[in-house]
Structures are given as structure tokens and as C-alpha cells.
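C-alpha cells please, single chain.
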Amino acid sequence: MSLFALTHGTFAVVQFHALGDLNPLVSVLVGDGSYLAVSRFPFQPFGLVALAIILVMAATSHDFWLANLTPPVWKTLHMLVYVAYGLLVVHVAFGILQAESSPLYPVLLGVGIVTVGGLHLAAGRRGAALDRLPADEGSDFVAVCLIDDIREGRARIATVAGERVAVFRYEGKLSAVSNVCQHQNGPLGEGRIIDGCITCPWHGFQYRPDTGQAPDPFTDRIPTFDVRLEGTTVLVGTTPHPPGTPVAPAIIPEHLNARAIDATA
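Here you go.
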């Protein structure tokens, strides 16, 4: 995306701003339109700022920057993608509405804004539902779901003691770990068990479900939680264990395990 944006920006600067008396970048900021009139409001500066944000994000995407900036700073920096998106919407909106008379273009722009915004709102609503604490929060164990709610090789995500926990079902067992991947905070509960390991859906980082430890030679670790089964109800302990702590899985009785739905089928 950064290469596409850079190509577009370079082409626009060369075509429209490189042959005048002003520095091309200065010309982008002051050369077109008027900041006092909506009908002639300059749209190119919005694209320039969005391009700068996108290039910074691309330059810091390597794990080197994640480790050296620290995950909170790195995450905050990359949340600027929403600022870049807003700037691009304004950039395209002014560019189209000032230059085109056909209603097709604003309609397509509106559809794009509503679609992307609607998907983010839906994702946010779903995430907010996950953060609701169980009714019996405050005890040593809380009920998070029924055994049939978890497919074989997959997880159920629940909030326990203020933290999202992923409860995985695999090989007739249940294990609970933190839902946060140590690489780039990916949602482990949206991944699945591959080769006996929880596999993050973002970048493929893996952890053993009963220890929270990455397989050798990797050293990443995530917190683990106690888990038990009472009848058909899955309960998770409210106190997390330190990252990489082995926890005995809960064994699923054969008559309940026979109803499992294989997630890979």
C-alpha cells in the first residue's frame, strides 16, 4: 500500500507541481485552490500528510522497531492508520467533488465510506460484547461457555478478571491462555491448533496450549489460566499464571468429546 501511495504521490507531484518556480512540495501546499472557499479548498495537502503517515508505518513495520519502540508505543504509532484513512477520505472527496459533475463518483465514495466505517463499527460492537465480565466475576473460577460452544482445534474468547482469555479445545482436552499474542498483540483465540500449537492468525506465531510457551527454538511466552469442566460448563480461573507456566489441561469426557465439530473439516 505504501508503494502504491508513493507512486501515486510522485506522479501527481511531477505532473502538476514540478515545472513551476516553487519547490514542488511547497507547491502542493499552496499552489492550488483557496483555503477560504469550500469549492476550491486544496485537497492535495491531505494526501501528502496521509502519505507521510503511511510511509512511517511501513518503515516501522519490522520486528526491530516493535522491540525497540516497545509494543505500546509501536501500537499507538500504527493506530495512526485511522488518521491516514480519514485524511484520504477528505483528499478523495474534495478531489472528486470539485472536478467531476457526475453523481456516480460521490455515490461510490459514499458507499466506500459507509462500508469501511460499518465494518469497523461492527467489529467494535463485537469486541465490546467480549469485554463484558461474567455474572460471577470475583470468585476463583467463572463460567465462560458450554463445551459444545468450542469447536475442535479452535477457541472460545471470554473476558476473565479484565483480560481476554482464549479457551482452546484439542485432542479431548481444554486449555486456557491469554488471548494476546506476544508478537504484535494478535488475537490468538481467532487462530487454531496447528501441529499441536496455538497458531496466531496474524503472523503464525505459535504457543503450546498447556504451557503458553513457543516451541523451540523460540522463546516467546504467554500467561496461562486454570480451566475445568463441570458437567457441560467450562470454567476458567480468575488468576493468571506467569507467562510460560505449565497448567494441566481439563479432560473432556468421551461422551462429550464425541460431539466435537472438527474446525478443519
